[in-house]
């Protein structure tokens, strides 16, 4: 369309007074216009399908396979699960061995009737149902890691998506600018040759060289951005995988319909790992309160002993002794111990309840903020596709025709072409920002719409 439009305009002006300029001037302008058109239509290059590409789905799966943080949390969970079994067991019994009532005048074992060799066993029993409650508490501490693992998985998926999209944008930007750099390099050579024979002014040459230098600077900055983002992605999928080329098309992310009502969103967030984690901490805190209440009950210990006595010196038999006893704790002075412990645990429980409310408000607010941002980015993307991109192309066409008909100058052509480049890059930036906003929304909503993978 652009080429046909230019050719029609050139035929139109061929019979006008403008077309009867000096031949070198006409040839110079047509040479520049041919280069611009060649640059416009020569920017699309076929994708090298032989090069392995990294899809977003592949990156997500790689990030979750053998992830050290998740594995560490799984080991901690297993550790506490095993510990809970141990916490539900009685303490090991204690063995008592002693020699009682040995006379110090002769140290003869059979001299006195009360002399005995005693062996005893003592078993302690904690107060109330402490063992069972302690076991339940440790088991719930183990289950707490389930929500932490789920939250870590969601966070990793979000970070992988954000980084993947960021790399995609900068790779596209670099490709686009490299294509424009080739065009500007050729343009500088043409303008320089025309300037050397007096067919163009120095300002046009400096302008073309300046734009070329600016593109070089942008390429350096973009390469730095790409290296930074690929290094960031390598944390999750490894350096070799992160160095692969990405897909040529932006992935598609679907988000659910989200209500504006705060109470509705709050109820949906009850299934989010962050809220489930606080809920589990509340259960653990309730077990702490139950444990303190059990401390008001007495603990006790059972002692059983057997005393062996030797025969009398004249050969008479002596009976052995069997003894048993109970030791009981007396929690009589509870004001400054059990009472204070109970208050401390109740305060901790109330603190967690308020923390849960605060976390719900924060999650809902963050989600609503991202939803608002996503809607605005979608509107901006539509604006660019419907208006700004076509207008930038029209401006480029108009400046070319004006320059060809000697009604515009070279600076207008350069400015229009740079504006067109910037609009294209802005459109890609908004498209990527839109997807990144969706990725953030899915971090909040995946818990109540189900995992995507």
Distance from N terminus to C terminus (CA atoms, Å) equals 44 Å
The low-pLDDT segments are: 1-25, 40-49
Looking across the biggest beta sheet, what order are the strands in? Answer: 2-3-5-6
Q: What portion of residues belong to β-strands?
A: 5-15%
Helix content bin: 55-70%
Question: Helix count, per DSSP?
Answer: 11
CATH superfamily of the largest domain: Outer membrane efflux proteins (OEP)
H/E series: HHEHHEEHHHEHHEEHH
As an assembly, this protein is single chain
Radius of gyration: 41 Å
Keywords for this entry:
four-stranded antiparallel β-sheet; two-stranded parallel ribbon; 11 helices; 453 residues
Please tell me about this protein's structure.
It is a single chain. This protein has 453 residues and is an alpha+beta fold. It has 2 domains: 2-90 and 126-296 and 331-449, Outer membrane efflux proteins (OEP), CATH 1.20.1600; 92-125 and 298-330. 67% of the residues lie in helices and 8% in strands. It contains 11 helices and 6 strands. The chain has helices at 2-14, 23-41, 56-64, 68-87, 130-196, 202-237, 239-242, 262-268, 273-294, 338-404, 410-449; strands at residues 53-54, 94-100, 116-125, 245-246, 300-308, 321-328. Helix 1 (2-14) packs parallel to helix 10, helix 2 (23-41) packs antiparallel against helix 5 and helix 3 (56-64) packs antiparallel against helix 5 (130-196).
